Amino acid sequence: MTETMSSIARLEEVRKHIAAAAHAAGRKAQDVRLIAVSKTFEAPDIAPVIAAGQRCFGENRVQEAMRKWPELRARHGNLELHLIGPLQTNKAADAVGFFDAVQSVDRPKLAATLAREMEKQGRRPNLYIQVNTGDESQKAGIAVAEADGFIRSCLCDLGLPVIGLMCIPPVDADPVPHFRLLAGIARRHGLARLSMGMSGDYEAAIACGATDVRVGSAIFGAR
Ligand SMILES: *Cc1c(COP(=O)(O)O)cnc(C)c1O
Question: Is the distance from the beta carbon of residue 60 to the nearest atom of ligand 1 less than 6 Å?
Fold first, then answer.
């Protein structure tokens, strides 16, 4: 996988690796969804990837996504946009109005604001709860010890459309224990979707049950 390959060729490579990893784990390739992470890339870089059939994209900033995507959405129907970066409470209204899914729900105040905005706007994007599986102080995500209570509160008290969990393992650590931890929490709560695995570790994540892999640089090149 080199920088001289086109994004379309790299996308094809990633798809092949996803299929192989799924089969090796006794799973179906179509049970793993590829989220192409297009943060920092602009429309001219993104359009060819859409033309190659990719429909689901991840962005990590609300404002950047709202600048880039309206025109792409108008030109190409049927796109699905996931917010995968930290969400400030004061941008929750924009996020509810704009995204098809928000993967970074990680604290009670944000959850309550999302519930209020969904009610107000009559829109219910799918939600994932981000778990800080490494309990890293600088990283977003609900602490592991608080995850069960927070998930229960989102589902039962707020009635939020939570469909899965998301994690970003610590850099330089073996991600597998983190993927397994996330899968175990999801299982306890009957949550079907597991968003885990990035360019460097999506095959390992698929072996651990990932249903959504978030792949950026392996498709678009270095940022
Ligand atoms: C940037 C980002 C990714 C993609 O990272 P790559 O290593 O480029 O694949 C995945 N998830 C989140 C939350 C990100 O911010």
Answer: yes
Q: Is 199 in the pocket of ligand 1 (CB under 6 A)?
A: yes
**Is residue 168 lining ligand 1, measured as CB closer than 6 Å?**
yes
Give the chain as a 3 state SS string: CCCCCCHHHHHHHHHHHHHHHHHHCCCCHHHCEEEEECCCCCHHHHHHHHHCCCCEEEECCHHHHHHHHHHHHHHCCCCEEEECCCCCHHHHHHHHHHCCEEEEECCHHHHHHHHHHHHHHCCCCEEEEEEECCCCCCCCCEEHHHHHHHHHHHHHHCCCCEEEEECCCCCCCCCHHHHHHHHHHHHHCCCCEEECCCCCCHHHHHHCCCCEEEECHHHHCCC
Q: Is any ligand 1 atom within 6 A of the Cβ of residue 198?
A: yes
The tens-digit pLDDT sequence of the chain (223 residues) is 445 689 999 999 999 999 999 999 999 999 999 999 999 999 999 999 999 999 999 999 999 999 999 999 999 989 999 999 999 999 999 999 999 999 999 999 999 999 999 999 999 999 999 999 999 999 999 999 999 999 999 999 999 999 999 999 999 999 999 999 999 999 999 999 999 999 999 999 999 999 999 999 999 999 9
106 Cα to the center of ligand 1, angstroms: 17
For tokens 């996803």, the residue is 18
Give distance in angstroms: CA of 159 to centre of ligand 1.
Answer: 29
